[in-house]
Amino acid sequence: MPREIRLNAFEMNCVGHIQQGLWTHPRDQSTRYSELQYWVDYAKKLEKGLFDGMFFADVVGVYDVYGGNADAALRNAVQVPVNDPLMLIPAMAAATQHLGFGVTANLTYEQPFLFARRMSTLDHLTGGRIGWNIVTGYLDSAARAIGIEGQIAHDDRYDLADEYMSLVYKLWEGSWDDDAVLADRAGGVYADPSKVRVIHHHGKQYKVDAMHLSAPSPQRTPVLYQAGSSPRGCRFAATHAECVFVNGQKMDGVKEIVNTIREEAVKYGREASDVKVFMGATPIVGRTDAEAKEKFEEYRRYVSSEGALAHAAASLGIDFAKYDIDEPIDTGKSQAIVSNVTAMTRAAGPQWTRRKLLEQMVLGSRQTPWIGSAQTIADQMMAWSEATGIDGFNLSRTVVPECFEDVIDLVVPLLQERGAYKTSYGDGTYRKKLFGHDRLPQTHSAAQYRSGGK
């Protein structure tokens, strides 16, 4: 039997997400991002297509590396304006029954005690369909927005994140016993005080002496996503992540990352199957290869090269505006997304130029699109799944909603015919649908905090 392929829509609560400039396409509806009904209809569409989840990216700063200011980002709507993704989830959850929601939240700037409550609330309201994409940030503009002069060094951010995770695990897993809530009307006792404990955490970064404010939610800890594939990011993923998001590169590069993360997870006492890997992909689908190619050429007419460079400059930590079109670019040491720099070097070669970058960004991003008929795209998905060991794809939007309608109407039925895609949702929480259980397994590092709020 072929491997089952899982799909997430890769989104952001903004106009221009990954493929810069495509918001200007006359059929694109992403400028409706501030309308709640837009997101409700979107969620219904994805559930019709049996998508596992909607994966929300987020940033809490602006892309101001290119040219030393945010002008290019503002002109081209490069992830600005951007609204809070967490606010959308209850409405989308109320309109669906099974779709999961992975939301990005930057732990560097989120107070852990209050964040833990916010995620527990969402887990309650969604019936256990919430996931958290753990990020540590990469924008100096975000650091300055909260009063820090600049970004914390890359590996130091992960050290802070390890402590943060131990604290929120204590709150989610260790503060309330499973049977603490009695809801005894006759006796007038709602919760048994002997089964709710204060968490005492005195660490290098955080000091908390408090009980978790929320009663146990269906999953307790949300499904944990993480997107770093640098050496330090891989160690963090091996310790914490249940789902890992990787950038699409060459097959051997993705396979190496997948194997490394799973091997590291086993070293930490986990099972290799405890980690699912989703790869970013941008399909342009037609009923024939020729139709898909025609659609791609149409989309290309709306690409913003300036927007693409502004986005790349921030996520790679390099001001490309300082270089002429064929001048060699010094990649240096970046405190941005280290794995992005590595991936770009693999794609463009060790010596970058602006021309080489723009040649890579044919659709307004560093992600090379897949162009073809439904059969061609289904073949590619299955080939990547088998060759690399990935479990599914985070599908980046191009022109919405048609980009996801094409996948749902054309590609999904083919994958189902081949036995590579589910024909119905399973029961239960987001985690149960992905892994077969509601709670984190005993092999996960969070399990050590279940017995008594250490």
TrEMBL record:
Family matches, as SUPFAM superfamilies: Bacterial luciferase-like
Gene Ontology MF terms in the entry: monooxygenase activity; oxidoreductase activity, acting on paired donors, with incorporation or reduction of molecular oxygen
Alphabetic keyword roster: Flavoprotein, FMN, Monooxygenase, Oxidoreductase
Q: Where is the Luciferase-like domain?
A: 27-390
What InterPro entries has UniProt attached to this entry? Diverse_substr_monoxygenases (IPR051260), Luciferase-like_dom (IPR011251), Luciferase-like_sf (IPR036661), NTA_MOA (IPR016215)
Q: Extract the Pfam families matched here.
A: Bac_luciferase
**Annotated residues for binding of FMN:** 58, 104, 154, 158, 229-230
Q: Which family does it belong to?
A: Belongs to the NtaA/SnaA/DszA monooxygenase family.
The protein's name is N5,N10-methylene tetrahydromethanopterin reductase
Superkingdom is Bacteria
User: Which residue windows are coiled coil?
Assistant: none
Query: Which chain regions cross the lipid bilayer?
Result: none
